[in-house]
Specification:
heterotrimer; A mainly alpha; B mainly alpha; C mainly alpha; A: mainly alpha; Cytochrome C Oxidase, Chain A; 17 helices; B: mainly alpha; 2 domains
C-alpha cells in the first residue's frame, strides 16, 4: 500500500480554483432553479444519501427482528411493512438513480466534451420528480406504510390489504418518470452532443454503460407506470383486471411488473459497471482490455435484459414451455456480464496496480458481483429455482449483486470522482479502512443467507425455525459492521469538504476529458470545446500531455 | 411562395444566418399530406366494411393489418420518418420491437399453458 | 450564464461572425444540433408512450382470447357510427396538424393559425363524441366499479336497439361477468387516450396564441414540429383502439 499514483499539487501553494460551478452563483434559488448538470448531480447526491440511510435504518430493524426466531421485536404486520419500505426505498430511491443521477449527470457531458446535457430543464424536472416521489413514499411510510413487499404482488396488493398501497404505488410511479427523463436526456446527449473527434469508440466505457442503462430506463419504466396505474384502478374500483373472481389473472400483473423490474436490475448495475471500467483502468495504468467487447456487452446486457423477466415467475403457474425458453435466455444474459468480468481481470493482468480506495471497492465489486451473478445462474435454472426461490438464497443473491456489486461501485465512483466534484481529496487511510470494514461486514451479513436459503428459510418471514438462529445472528452481527462501514464515508467525506487536501486537476493521473479540466469544473465545463484526437484510456497520450503541460489557473 | 424567394436571394451575410434556422431541407408538399389523409379515411371505411364480412378467423387479422398499414403511413409521411435520419428510423423500429417483445413473450406464456405438461 | 459565452466560443464574442439566435440554448453549438437533439428527444418520449400503452394492449389481447364471447357482446354495445366518425375526425385532425407544420415551415402565419385552430376544434369534437359515448355507458350501468350491471348480457333483449342489430345470444352468468373486464379495458384504454388528447388540446390552445404572435413562422418551428409528432402518435393509438374495441365480430 505504499505505492500510490496520487499526484497532488504542492499543498502549501495550491488552492481550490475560485471560479467553479459551486461558487459561480450563491443562494438557495440558484441551486433549486439550476440547469447546470453538475449542480443537479450534487442535489441528487445529497437526496440519495438521505434515502440510503433511511433504507439502511429499515434494514437495521429487519436484522434486529431476525436476531430471534420469534416475531418479538415487532408485530408481523409491522415487519412486513419494514421490509417492504426497505425494498421500495432502496430500489426506487437509491439503487436506480444512484450512479446515473449523481455520477452520470455530473460526468457524461464532460466525458463527451459538451457543456451540459441536451435538456437541462428536463434534468431539473427529473430531480423534482424524484423528490416528489420520495416525499410521498416517506409520507406513506409515516401514515401506516405498505406491506406488500416492494413487488406489489396481486391479488394481495389489490384485494387483501388495507395499507397505503396507493400511496406507495403513486410514489413509485412518479419516481419512474424521474428515471425515464434522466435516461432520455442521456441518450439524446450521447448521440447528439459529442465533441468533434469524439467517435463512439473513443467514448469512455462509463458513457457506454450509461447509454445502455438509459435505453432500459426509457423503454422499460413506462410498463411499470401502466402496471401501477392498473393496480391503483383495480384497488380503487375493482375493475377485475387482476381479480380471479372476475376472471382476471394475477399473473398478468407479474408479467407486466417484471417486464420492467428485470431490466431495472440492469439499470441499477450497468452504470456501476461503467464506474468499474474507469477505476480498474486508472489504478492498473492500463487501457481496458477488449474495449469493444466491453462496450458491446453493455448494450447486449440491455437488449437481452428484456427477454428474461419470467425467471422471477417460475413457480407462479406460468406454462412449462415458457419457463424453458426464459430459462435458456437467462443463461444467455449471464454471458455479457461474465465477459466484462473477464475483461476487467485481463486489464489487471500485467498492469501497474495500486490500491487506493476506489480500487479497493472495485476489487470488492469484482469478487462479490461474480458470486452474486453466478448464484443468479443457479436461480435461472428452473429445477434449482423451484427450491431456492422465495428463500433467503434469493435475498442473498440480489444483495450480493446490488450491495456487494452496485453499492460498492457507487462508493468506488464517489471516491474516484470526489476530487473532481469538490476539488478536495478524501483522507486515504480512513477510507481504505472503511472499504475493508464494508467488505468484511458485507460478507458476514449476506454469505450466511445463502446457507439459510439452501436450508430452506423463507424470505419475508419475521419468525423462523430455531435451528436457523445462529446464522441469523451472524448475519445481524455482520450488518452492524456493515453499517459502520457506510457511516464512515458520510463522516470523512463531509470532513474533506473543508479539510481535505487540494486535489488539482488530475490527482489520479487518469485519462479522460474530465481530468483535463479544473477541479471543481467551471459551470460551462470547458473554456474551449475540446477536439478529441486519441482513444480512451490512452496513457501514452497522457505522458505526452504532461511533457508539454502548462499550468493555467482560472479565476 | 414569397418566403421561399426570400431564401434564394439572401446576401452573403444573411447566408451565414442560414444555419441558424431549423433544418428545412425536407419540406413535404401538402399534396402528399392530402393523399395520405384521403388514404387513411378510405382505409377506415374498408376496415368497417370488412368487419361486416364473414371472414372467420381472418376478421381480426384483416382489421389489424389495415390498422398497421394506416399507422405506417402516418409514421412515414405525417411524422416525416420517410425523410428522417437513419437514427430516427432505428429509434421507431426499436420501440416497435420492444412493444412486440412485451406482447409476444407475455402471450407466449398464455398460449402455451394449454399445451399442458411436457 | 450569458457572460461566459464570450469565453466559451474561444474567441472574443463577435456577434457579426457567430450570430446567436435568441432561441438557441447556450449549451448547443449551433441550431442544427439543437433541432436535432430536441427532435430525437421527442421521439424517445414517444417510445415511452408506446411502452406505456403496450401494457394495456397486452392485457387486452390476453382477455380477448380468454373471454371472446364476452368481448363480442361488449363490443356490440359500442356505436359503430360514433366510433367511425371519431376515427375520421382524428385522421382529419392529423391532416390539419401536418398542414400546420407545412405552414410553419413555409412561414405562412395565417395558414398555421388556421390549421392549429382546426386541429383544436376537431380534437374537441372527438372529446365531445367520447363524452356522448361515455354517458351512454353510464346510463346503461356498463362502467366497471360504478354499479356495474350484467343485465343486458344475460338478457340481451332488454336492450332493444342493440338486440335489433346483433341478436346476441344471452351469455351465461359467469361469461356475462367477464364483460366487466372488457369494459375495464375499454375505459382504461380510451380513457388514457382521451387524457392524452386533453393534454394535446391544452398545448394546442397555448400554441394558437403563440402562433398568432408569429413565434413559429420566423424559421424556428421545432415546437410545432415536435408537437405534431405527439399529435400523430395519439392518432395512431386510436387507429389501433378503434378496430380492437369497436369491430369485434360485427358480421352476422
Amino acid at each position: 500500500m505504499s505505492t500510490t499514483i496520487v499526484n497532488l499539487p504542492d499543498q502549501s501553494t495550491a488552492r481550490v480554483p475560485k471560479t467553479n460551478f459551486l461558487s459561480k452563483e450563491n443562494g438557495l434559488l440558484s441551486w433549486l432553479l439550476t440547469g447546470d448538470h453538475k449542480r443537479i448531480a450534487m442535489l441528487y447526491l445529497i437526496s440519495i444519501t438521505v434515502f440510503f440511510f433511511i433504507g439502511g435504518a429499515l434494514a437495521g430493524l429487519i436484522r434486529l427482528e431476525l436476531l430471534t426466531p420469534q416475531s418479538d421485536l415487532m408485530a408481523t404486520d409491522t415487519y412486513n411493512k419494514v421490509f417492504s419500505m426497505h425494498g421500495l426505498i432502496m430500489v426506487f430511491f437509491f439503487l436506480v438513480p444512484s450512479v446515473p443521477a449523481t455520477l452520470g449527470n455530473f460526468l457524461i457531458p464532460i466525458m463527451i466534451g459538451a457543456k451540459d446535457l441536451a435538456l437541462p430543464k428536463i434534468n431539473l424536472l427529473s430531480w423534482y420528480l424524484y423528490i416528489a416521489g420520495g416525499t410521498l413514499m416517506l409520507y406513506t411510510m409515516i401514515t401506516g406504510g405498505v406491506d406488500t413487499g416492494w413487488t406489489f404482488t396481486t391479488p394481495l396488493s389489490t384485494h387483501y390489504l388495507n395499507t397505503n398501497v396507493l400511496g406507495a404505488a403513486t410514489a413509485a410511479f412518479i419516481a419512474g418518470f424521474s428515471s425515464v427523463f434522466t435516461g432520455l436526456n442521456f441518450i439524446v446527449t450521447i448521440h447528439k452532443m459529442r465533441a468533434p473527434g469524439m467517435t463512439w469508440f473513443r467514448l469512455p466505457l462509463f458513457v457506454w454503460s450509461h447509454y445502455a442503462a438509459s435505453i432500459l430506463m426509457v423503454l422499460a419504466t413506462p410498463v411499470l407506470a401502466i402496471t401501477l396505474v392498473l393496480v391503483g384502478v383495480e384497488r380503487g374500483l375493482g375493475i377485475g383486471v387482476f381479480d380471479p373472481a372476475k376472471g382476471g389473472d394475477p399473473i398478468l400483473f407479474q408479467h407486466l411488473f417484471w417486464f420492467y423490474s428485470h431490466p431495472a436490475v440492469y439499470i441499477m448495475i450497468l452504470p456501476g459497471m461503467g464506474v468499474i471500467s474507469e477505476v480498474v483502468s486508472t489504478f492498473a495504468r492500463k487501457r481496458v482490455f477488449g474495449y469493444t467487447a466491453v462496450a458491446f456487452s453493455s448494450v447486449a446486457i440491455a437488449v437481452f435484459g428484456f427477454f428474461v423477466w419470467e425467471h422471477h415467475m417460475f413457480i407462479m403457474g406460468v406454462s412449462n414451455y415458457s419457463t424453458l425458453v426464459f430459462s435458456l435466455l437467462t443463461m444467455l444474459v449471464a454471458v455479457p456480464s461474465a465477459i466484462k468480468i473477464f475483461n476487467w481481470t485481463f486489464t489487471l493482468y500485467k498492469g501497474s496496480l495500486t490500491f487506493e480506495t476506489p480500487m479497493l471497492y472495485a476489487f470488492g465489486f469484482m469478487g462479490l458481483f461474480t458470486i452474486g451473478g453466478l448464484t443468479g445462474v443457479f436461480l435461472g435454472s428452473t429445477g434449482t429455482d423451484i427450491h431456492l426461490t422465495e428463500t433467503y438464497f434469493i435475498v442473498a443473491h440480489f444483495h450480493f449483486v446490488m450491495v456487494g456489486g452496485m453499492l460498492m461501485a457507487f462508493l468506488s465512483g464517489v471516491h474516484f470522482w470526489w476530487p473532481k466534484m469538490t476539488g478536495r481529496m478524501y483522507p486515504e487511510k480512513i477510507s481504505q479502512l472503511a472499504a475493508l470494514v464494508t467488505f468484511i461486514g458485507f460478507n458476514f451479513t449476506f454469505f450466511p443467507q445463502f446457507i439459510l436459503g439452501t436450508l430452506g428459510m423463507p424470505r419475508r418471514y419475521a419468525a423462523y425455525p430455531p435451528e436457523f438462529q445462529i446464522l441469523n445472528v451472524f448475519s445481524t452481527a455482520g450488518a452492524t459492521i456493515l453499517g459502520v462501514g457506510y457511516v464512515l464515508p458520510l463522516l470523512y467525506l463531509t470532513w474533506s469538504l473543508r479539510y481535505g487536501e487540494v486535489a488539482g486537476n488530475n490527482p489520479w493521473q487518469a485519462t479522460g476529458l474530465e481530468w483535463q479540466i479544473q477541479s471543481p469544473p467551471l459551470t460551462e465545463n470547458f473554456v474551449q470545446i475540446p477536439v478529441m484526437d486519441h482513444d480512451a484510456y490512452d496513457y501514452e497520450w497522457l505522458e505526452r500531455q504532461k511533457e508539454k503541460e502548462v499550468t493555467t489557473s482560472v479565476g | 411562395m414569397s418566403a421561399q424567394h426570400e431564401h434564394e436571394h439572401l446576401s452573403k451575410h444573411d447566408q451565414n444566418l442560414h444555419d441558424l434556422h431549423d433544418n428545412l431541407d425536407h419540406v413535404v408538399p401538402p399534396r402528399i399530406y392530402l393523399i395520405v389523409g384521403a388514404t387513411l379515411l378510405v382505409f377506415t371505411g374498408i376496415t368497417v366494411w370488412a368487419s361486416y364480412l364473414e371472414l372467420g378467423v381472418f376478421n381480426p387479422i384483416v382489421a389489424l393489418l389495415i390498422a398497421c398499414i394506416k399507422a405506417t403511413i402516418v409514421v412515414l409521411f405525417f411524422m416525416h420518418v420517410k425523410y428522417s435520419s437513419k437514427l430516427t428510423k432505428l429509434t421507431v423500429a426499436g420501440g416497435v420491437f420492444t412493444f412486440l417483445v412485451l406482447v409476444g413473450m407475455t402471450l407466449a406464456d398464455y398460449f402455451t399453458r394449454a399445451w399442458g405438461r411436457w | 450564464m450569458s457572460d461566459s459565452t464570450a469565453i466559451v466560443n474561444g474567441q472574443a464574442a463577435d456577434a457579426h461572425e457567430h450570430p446567436h439566435p435568441p432561441y438557441q440554448r447556450h449549451h448547443f453549438e449551433n441550431m442544427g444540433q439543437q433541432v436535432d437533439a430536441t427532435n430525437f428527444a421527442m421521439w424517445l418520449f414517444l417510445l415511452t408512450e408506446i411502452m406505456f400503452f403496450g401494457g394495456l394492449f397486452t392485457a387486452y389481447l390476453i382477455y380477448r382470447n380468454w373471454y371472446y364471447p364476452a368481448f363480442v357482446v361488449g363490443s356490440h354495445q359500442l356505436s359503430i357510427l360514433w366510433g367511425t366518425l371519431n376515427t375520421g375526425v382524428l385522421i382529419t385532425s392529423s391532416l390539419t396538424m401536418a398542414m400546420g407544420v407545412w405552414c410553419a415551415e413555409t412561414r405562412r402565419k395565417g395558414g398555421l393559425v388556421w390549421c392549429l385552430v382546426l386541429t383544436f376544434l376537431l380534437g374537441l369534437v372527438f372529446l365531445g363524441i367520447k363524452t356522448i359515448e361515455y354517458s351512454e355507458k353510464i346510463e346503461k350501468h356498463h362502467v366497471p366499479g360504478f354499479h356495474y350491471s350484467v343485465q343486458s348480457f344475460v338478457d340481451p333483449q332488454s336492450d332493444p336497439e342493440v338486440y335489433k342489430a346483433y341478436h346476441d345470444k344471452p351469455l351465461r352468468l359467469d361469461m356475462a361477468r367477464h364483460t366487466e373486464v372488457y369494459f375495464s379495458l375499454y375505459f382504461a384504454m380510451t380513457g388514457m387516450h382521451a387524457l392524452h388528447m386533453i393534454i394535446g388540446i391544452s398545448i394546442l390552445g397555448f400554441m394558437i396564441f403563440r402562433a398568432r404572435a408569429g413565434a413559429y413562422t420566423t424559421g424556428h418551428i421545432t415546437f410545432v414540429e415536435n408537437f405534431g409528432l405527439y399529435w400523430h402518435f395519439v392518432d395512431i393509438i386510436w387507429i389501433f383502439l378503434f378496430p380492437l374495441l369497436y369491430l369485434i365480430s360485427r358480421h352476422g
